[in-house]
Amino acid sequence: MVEQIARVELEHWLHDPTWLPDAKLLAPTGPVLVLRDVEIARMANDAVTTEVQRITPSALPPGRRTYALVARDALQAQADRSGHEVAYIAFDVTFFAGVSDAHVGFSVRMALPSSTKGPILCCCGATDLFASRDGRWTLTKRRGLVCS
Description:
2 helices
């Protein structure tokens, strides 16, 4: 499921560069960094359970640039080494009890050097609605954008 959703979102972005909010924050050269771990939340009644699933290279579509799946700690280490923020693509998925659709967060996020102090205001993200149809996850609509 995570693999299909990641691929659909990235393919859509390849065809429409405005699809990924704040894509201009990503490094202009080299591979596009993608957080390999996706948090899956399931909400039922008043309880939330979470799990983490990994994106594998087979989920990444061919494009003008290559992708690199990166662990969160590796992103942090890169930011600390360089002394600069490191922008990457991230996904999260939420399921609500009684609903077969999935709400998918698709955003650019930043790993900041550990030495960074003060408030950080960054990045817009989209929430997209996916539906499972015939065993495939299909993007049905964009639910909204949130910027901080």
